[in-house]
Amino acid sequence: MGEQSGASGPGQGGNECLPEHPAQHGRSGGPLRRRWALWAPLTGLTVLVLVGAALRWAGRSGAADLVWAAVTLVALAPAALSVLRDLWRRRFGVDVIAVLALVGALVVREYLAGAVIAVMLATGRTLEAYAQRRATRDLRALLERAPRTARRRTADGGIEVVPVDQVAVGDRLLVGPGDVVAVDGITEDPATLDESVVTGESQLVEKAVGAAVASGVVNAGAGFGLRATESAARSTYAGIVRLAEEATARKAPTVRLADRYAAAFVPFTLVLAGLGWLLSGDIVRAVAVLVVATPCPLLLATPIAIVSGLSRVARRGVLVRDGGSLEALGRVRTLLVDKTGTLTAGRPRVADTVVAAGGDPDEVLRWAASVEQLSPHVMAAALVEHARDRGLRLTMPTEVTEEPGRGVRGRVDGRRIRVGQLDGDPPSWARPRIEEPGHSVVWVADDTGPIGAILLEDPVRPDARRAVDRLRAAGLSRIVMVTGDRPDAARRVAEAVGVDDVIARCAPQEKVARVRAEADRAVTVMVGDGVNDAPALAEAHVGVAMGATGATASADVADAVLTVDRLDPLADAVEIARYARRIAVQSATIGMGLAVCAMGFAAAGLLPPVAGAFLQEGIDVLVILNALRALYGGLHATGSPSA
């Protein structure tokens, strides 16, 4: 049902590393041409430097210097324009050192040193583009697989191929063998699916008739019918693609990490260069200091490590919005987690309906389900499904309003009905039942007060305890469960999964306050899956939404989305984030440390500009190769697929 585009290759080179949109496939002239565009600037400058060397070897020193000077000017012009543009925007970065080094090489007629600096800068840009493309390979794969068409059944029993954005809720589709499911839907036939792209799990999944299917999964068996339950724009894969686009388009704050130190590093460099010149009377020493001071390790290695981490967590079923969020995830110490749909299955079932004396349980259930028809909450869906299973006739409500975390109000058959939490103490007729452990309570009231209580049961996820243990092993020292449920039901879940603290009867506003309080003490991550969790997710250092449906408010404000319906991939993401951040800092520290040592030798006259330029080139390659280690390792869990 969804056509797949071919693999996209590198773009235009430079410092840009944006994924090629599937719709652009085939317009860029093929992989070979794109690779040539990436490596052409570096290749051209290297060839010119070698031409100069050949001329010098042939005894034509003047011509060699002319070629090397031209190479230096080719690198100086865009670098100088970039610095001037930053200064115009009142930004001051370490790029100024590279410009001063190129200018200095021309002034002291160290043309070969200038040419080597030019090649060094081109090498840095090319390696950065190449490494980031390598690091974002998994994110780009998500974009390339986005389905663009679907096979829709027509009224006369035929099949038509339509653009995926023309699929509407309720359309009946045909998913052929090998097709990518274009929209979320319900199966009309048994299906065998490969969900690895969405969930990270490689095992095939069998779906029975009536099972929910997320967009983005691949039909690994025979063709089957699918009834669309969401449009393409509101489906699971649309949310994944949007987050992948943002993750690849945004650069981590560490991309310009060197600029944070510019206020100290640039003056230090200039003072050291000036001292070398002043004490020796030789300006060449100052130029040599500037040459080896070019901070490519910070400019290149750190973003490569962070983007590598982004790609790896995507492969584990966690889409992180940007590099800044990944860095924060690598520093988290506290987790606040919503109960329903996160630690519990998120598919509550109606266990019983308790009513006042003389009341009709089916009628109370019908009123509640009628009001809840327009609510996206999982408990609302449970009420509606149970009422329909009992054959109750639901009425479309009017004057419906919803207060997140409190409940829904509406008019049914002329009667004002409120479904949700209870204001005040429970009535005596309900106490014996609602005090039984293991149940959540949804109250039904009219203008006279409570008229019924619907008991729901939502079992604890079998993997919840293991997920909490994994998160502790990943470095989280405090795990708190927050829920709007009753204290006894909340404590039962808390004891089962092993959290440190539990906060019950927590309204959305209180969740926000709790998250803010925890965030004041430590770097905090909040995990939730409902619309009422959105404010709390936005308040945390890292907000994580369960489920990738891009239309939900929680996914829209979240810094990360779990594409698999489990909590344990978050532990993988935390471990990967910590490892990527450690590699980034390590690469920058090693690179800058070596550069500072070289600057000292240059100031003492022991390292001429040409040798310094070649040394700095070697340092760049070293730290970039070290940064690419972030593509592997760092996971301590057993039994996990290799990342």
UniProtKB/TrEMBL annotation:
Protein name in the entry: ATPase P
NCBIfam families in the record: ATPase-IB2_Cd, ATPase-IB_hvy, ATPase_P-type
Region (Disordered): 1-29
Source taxon at top rank: Bacteria
SUPFAM superfamilies in UniProt: Calcium ATPase, transduction domain A, Calcium ATPase, transmembrane domain M, HAD-like
Gene Ontology terms, MF aspect: ATP binding; ATP hydrolysis activity; ATPase-coupled monoatomic cation transmembrane transporter activity; cadmium ion transmembrane transporter activity; metal ion binding
Matching InterPro entries: ATPase_P-typ_cyto_dom_N, ATPase_P-typ_P_site, ATPase_P-typ_TM_dom_sf, ATPase_P-typ_transduc_dom_A_sf, ATPase_P-type_domA, Cation_Transport_ATPase_IB, HAD-like_sf, HAD_sf
Family (UniProt): Belongs to the cation transport ATPase (P-type) (TC 3.A.3) family. Type IB subfamily.
Keywords: ATP-binding, Cell membrane, Membrane, Metal-binding, Nucleotide-binding, Transmembrane, Transmembrane helix
Gene3D superfamilies the record matches: Calcium-transporting ATPase, cytoplasmic domain N, Calcium-transporting ATPase, cytoplasmic transduction domain A, HAD superfamily/HAD-like
UniProt organism field: Micromonospora maris
P-type ATPase A domain ranges (all copies): 146-245
One Pfam family cited in the UniProt record for this chain: Hydrolase
Residue intervals passing through the bilayer: 36-59, 66-84, 96-124, 261-280, 286-307, 588-607
